[in-house]
Write a structure and sequence with these properties.
It contains two helices and four strands, in the order βαββαβ. It is an alpha+beta fold and about 90 residues long. The protein has a domain of about 60 residues: Alpha-Beta Plaits, CATH 3.30.70. The chain has a four-stranded antiparallel beta sheet, covered by helices on one side.
Length: about 90
């Protein structure tokens, strides 16, 4: 299982809303327009095919960046989840 950062810039409010709702169901929001997706390459491929169907490829920008499997992963600032709630895809020290 790998982690991917997904970010977007959508020019149309309707498409923005559709993509945002789609991402909320399948990835964890980290910041405005930035999500964390955990899955294998096949899951990412299916995820991206569905996401691309929701945007206009000529006007919108949707990007995926793989995170290294090893290395430091840390968060600075407000937590993504309320205190006491842990998501199994994140280390407990986050």
């Amino acid at each position: 299982m790998s982690d991917f950062v997904i970010c977007y810039d959508i020019s149309n409010p309707r498409r923005l809303g559709r993509l945002y709702r789609y991402l909320l169901k399948r990835a964890m929001p980290l910041q405005y327009s930035v999500f964390l997706f955990s899955g294998d390459d096949r899951q990412l491929e299916c995820f991206m095919q569905d996401a691309i169907a929701l945007i206009d490829e000529k006007q919108d920008d949707l990007r995926v960046y793989p995170l290294p499997g090893r290395g430091l992963k840390a968060r600075i600032g407000r937590p993504a989840l309320p205190e006491g709630i842990q998501w199994s895809g994140m280390p407990a020290e986050w």
